[in-house]
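Record pair follows.
FIRST:
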Amino acid sequence: MNFSADKILSQALNKRKENSAFRILRDNKDLIDFCSNDYLGFAHSEELSNNIDKQYNLLPSKINGSGGSRLLAGNSSFAEKLESRIADFHNSEAGLLFNSGYDANVGLFSSLGQKDSSIIYDELIHASVHDGIKMSSAAAYMFRHNDLFHLEERLKIAEGAVYVAVESIYSMDGDEALLNGILELCKKYNANLIVDEAHATGITGPTGKGLVQSLGIEKDVFARVHTFGKALGCHGAVVTGSKLLRDYLINFSRSFIYTTALPIHSLIAIDQAYSMLIDNGTLIKELHENISYFKTKIAENSTVYLISSNSPIQCIVVSGNEKVKHLSELLQKDGLDVRPILSPTVQKGKERLRICLHSFNGKDHINGLISSIHRHLPTIDS
C-alpha cells in the first residue's frame, strides 16, 4: 500500500510541533550577538575582508568556481600549499581540506570504519560523527560523556582497528574532553584517538592552536578536525594527521572525492584568517576575559543552573522545550540574540539557552544579558 509523501511529511512535522520542537529559520542580525560561533569577530572583520580582497586581486587570473572535485579540475597549488601551512601551524605531518566540518567528519569516519574496525564515541559527539559512523561498516560503541571508566569498558570489548572519537570542546555543553586520561587509555589498548577541535580552533591556547596542542599531545593523536566556520570566520575544514592518512582519505573519503572543491576565494579567506589569527592574540585574551566576567556575574543569582564550562559556550539549563523557547523569545525582545537548544538535539529535561560569548561583546552588553536573564527566568514558570 502506497502513502502520499505529503501525508508522511506532514505527520513528521506535526509530531515536532506537538513536542514544541518545530524548527524555523530566523534572521536576527539587528540583535546583540550572543548566538553565533564567530568568537573573535573574524566573520565581520573589515580588516580580514580587505586582506582577502588584496590577495585575490593579486591573482594573475580569476575564476568564480573551482571547476570540479580535487581529483579532477578542482585542485591547485594554492590548495596544497595551504594544507601544508595549516598542518605546520597545528604541528602535524599533513592536512587535507574539506568543504565543511560536517563533510570532514562524515568522510573521515565513514572511510575509516571498515568491517574489521571499531569506533568508540562520546555520547555527546557531534551529529556529523554519528552520520559518518552510520555510513561505515564498523562496530560502534558509545561511552558516557567524559566517563573514563565506561570508556575503558568499551575498549576492552572493541576489536580490530579501534578509533576513539571525542570533541575537545563540546558544542552543546562547552566543557572540555578529559584528553590526557582518554589518551592514556588509548595507549593502553592500542586505540587511535580522533579529536574534533571545531570549538577550540582559534581560541584555545595563547595562539588558538587548539586543546590538543595546548596539552602538547599532538604527536600522540591519530587525527584532528579543525574547522574554519567558527573562530576563523570563514568556511571549510581540515583533517590533520599523517601523510598516510591524507593519502587514504584522498582515495576512500567519499565526501572528499565526490564533491566540488572549495573555490580559490574561499582558500584565500582561510589563508588570511590564519594570518590574522597569528597576529591577534589580544582578541583571544579579550574573549577569555569576557568568559570569566560572565561566569562571575551570572553566578550572583543562585537560581541559574549554568553548565560548567571555561569556553565561550555557556549554557543555562531550562527544562522543557516550551519554557526555554519562551525565555529565548523574552531575551530577543530585549534585543539579545540568544537561542534555545531543544530536545531531541539535547537530552529531554536538559534543554538550555546556549549563550555564545565573543571578544567583541562589551561589558555593558554582558551586563544587559545577565540582567535580562535574572529578570525573566523566574517568570517562565508562572
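SECOND:
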Amino acid sequence: MEVLSPEMFTLIRFAIVFPILLIGLWWKEKSIAIEKRDIPRLIIVSLVGISIYQTLFMVSIHNTSATNSSLMIALSPIFTGILSIAGGKEKFTWRVQAGSLLAFLGAAAVIGMGNEGFAFRSNHLYGDLIGLIAALFWGWYPILAEPLVKKYSSLRVTAWSSGIAAALLVPINMTQLLTTSWHWSAGVWGSLLYAAIPVTVYGLVVWYYGVSKIGPTKVMVYMYMVPLVAILIAAVVLHESLNLLQGLGGIVILLGITVVKWEGKTKVSHSIAK
C-alpha cells in the first residue's frame, strides 16, 4: 500500500495469476473454452468479484484500520444469505441464519479483542464505508458465480475471471503502467506473489469448487475462520499474545460453522431418505 495503488496491486496480482491458471487448465482439461452465451455472466462475475471487490478491499485497508476493515468484510456471508434468499436461490432457514450470526459474533470478538481493537473514528469513516460496500460485492459474488461453477470446473472459471478482471483494470491503470519503474523491494514482490500464488491460484480455485458443491451461503460462512487462523498464525510466527475473549470468540466461530454445516447434512439425509 506504500508503493502501489489498490487498483495497480489488483491488476498486477491477477495478471500474474492468469497465465499460470491458463497453463494449468490446459494441462488438466485439454481445453480452455467457454461457451459464448456464458461470456456475459463471466464478465459480470469478474467485474463484481475481482475488479470491484478486490480494489475496494484494498482501498478500505488503505483508509481505515486493519481491524475495522476485517470486521466490515466479515459481514459478507450475511449479505450472501440475504441476497440468496431475496433472489430465490435458497430457502430461509433459522438454523443457517442463526449459525451465520453466531459465527459473525465470534469473528467480531476475535478481531475486536486483539491488541489493535476497533477504532471507529471520523478519519476512518471513508475506509469503513468502502469496506462495507466491498463486503456487499463479495457477498453477491458467489451467487453470480454459482451457475458457472456448476457448469464448468472451478479452475476454468477462476482462470478466465482472473484474466478478464485484469483486462478490465488496465484502462484505469494505464498511466501507472507506463510510468512505473518496476524496481520494487523484495517485500513488495513477495507480497504480490503471496497474494497471487497461494491465495488466488490455490485459494480461489478451491473456493469456487466449494460453491459448486455446497452452495454460496455455506461456503461463505467459512470466511469467519480467517480471523481465527490469522491470530493463531500471529501467535506462532510473531509471538503475539492471545486473550481469553479471543479464545472464546474462536470457539463461537466453530460453533456457528457447525450449526450451518449440520443443517446442510440434515437436508442431504432427507434427500437420500426420499
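COMMENT: Residues 263-274 have pLDDT under 50 and may be disordered.
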